[in-house]
Amino acid sequence: MSFEQIKLDDAFSGSTELSSVALGGRVLSVSDEFFAEAFHLLLVEPPPSLKGQFGPNGALYSGWESRRHNPRYDWCIIKLGASGTIVGFDIDTTHFNGNEAPEASVQAFYDPLSSDPDATDARWTEILPKVKLGPSSRHLFTIPNAPSATYVKLNMYPDGGIARFRVYGHVKPLFDLAHVFAGGRVEFVSDQHFGVGSNLILPGRGKDMGDGWETKRSRLPGHKDWVIIKAVELDTAHFKGNFPESCEIHALSSVNDVDWTVERSESEDWTLVLPRTKLGPHRQHYFQLENVEGVAFTHIKVTIHPDGGLKRVRMLGRREVAGASKVPSTAYELESVTTLVASKPAAAKSTLPVLPLTPEAFAPFGQVIQAYGDHTAAPKGTKITPANGGTASKFHKLSLLASSYPPNAGATAGLSVYRCQPLKDVNMTDGTTELTDLYPMGPGPNEGLADPGHRYLVVVAKNGENDKPDLKTLRAFVACTSQGIVYNTGIWHQPMTVLDKALDFTCIETQIGNGSIEDCEIVELEDSIRLRLP
């Protein structure tokens, strides 16, 4: 098996770290780990220095270290987090100096249905021959035409220490979602100073900032960073003071492999599917997409302004069936919402997805009133002070109240209570209900979940021509009882609609006189719209 040793310089930026513990990689067995346990090999974060720290067996290291004087060699068997085609390795001996492994080799085999192998399994095939290693440094090797692998076996000769072992490659698709397990991969990033771009499409929400994508700070006006994802919710988990100010998403259809130059990344071939939208700290964001109906795409470009960190990117879609259209079977038809659930067949009538309510997605229509257990997750600029003798936190002026009635209208503001019964006409087969009418607000144009059994719908639209709802701006959200909302002036909304259990609402309303019918305007939609409930 041939190989090539290469320099750093983002060598594997277009690949996925198949061995990462963030992907589910794990150590199955090891010949010896007397001084330092082998699980360290797969950790996401770079190895820290533990100089001067000692345990019962000697000096501590973040890595795998075996006893001295092995007459043969030591080995470690690893099950990859996802089966895939291997393109190379990073064998890192950082902080092992004088006790590093002098040489190493790698064996592998592919069998996703196999029981866990042992060191003598006849299926092991050498894919990286014995190579020399040096003290406290990273050693990167590419493997041309390497076979696919489910398991790898790292051998070190004769013994010693290795800090990290990273196996890079391309995932073999397992199911039809735009996700790392579907064969999605990060093909190009403008910057990955603090966290690599391929982390964006890993499963789960990770454990800290170390397993997300984070760029260096920029002081240049108009700066932006981007990542191009093939066939892939925007999540800023753990990024609290260094989340991006905003983002936008473009999509592209390209059958062939692309040389991702700056010029191509800015090409007019890209279709804007999410206009520039503000982001918030430490939470999942759900946005409805545009310009995706009846079009298939192969790549997604996520642009962040001006810089910062994202934890995960998810994009819901349906894989095109080969022969069913002119678009190749590697293309994806995007749904009009980013979410984590599998897509359902398109309904005959227009269907509007219902998204979890977040301050950023609801911002064009009003404000979300809620508290945050983690204060750093509150929207930027929120004033928070201790209250109630130190037993509470006060989130100041999350929304300001305004009345648009003229001074001589005789309107007054007050509190009203509504007892609302739960929605009955939900189709249990496809989880949809019908939206038939809207009300205007005013005369003019998953944190803190108190009770998961109490939810309500919020459906909104901006005012359009002739003071009617602009249905192109229609959006739907699901809120919990720890969240309140304030509509902007001129925003149309669905009647109060409760899910699951009966709820009482207290509403701050400005009314003329005794609140008669002149305060309520209803527009009946020409064609009902189906709401897909989460």
From TrEMBL:
InterPro entries: Allantoicase, Allantoicase_dom, Galactose-bd-like_sf, RmlC_Cupin_sf, UAH_cupin, Ureidogly_lyase, Ureidoglycolate_lyase_dom_sf. It holds the Pfam family Ureidogly_lyase. One of its GO terms (biological process) is allantoin catabolic process. It catalyses: (S)-ureidoglycolate = urea + glyoxylate. It comes from the Eukaryota. Residues 24-171, 183-319 form the Allantoicase domain. Keywords: Lyase, Purine metabolism. One of its GO terms (molecular function) is ureidoglycolate lyase activity. PANTHER family: ALLANTOICASE (PTHR12045), INACTIVE ALLANTOICASE-RELATED (PTHR12045:SF3). Belongs to the allantoicase family. Homodimer. This is Allantoicase. It comes from Gymnopus androsaceus JB14.
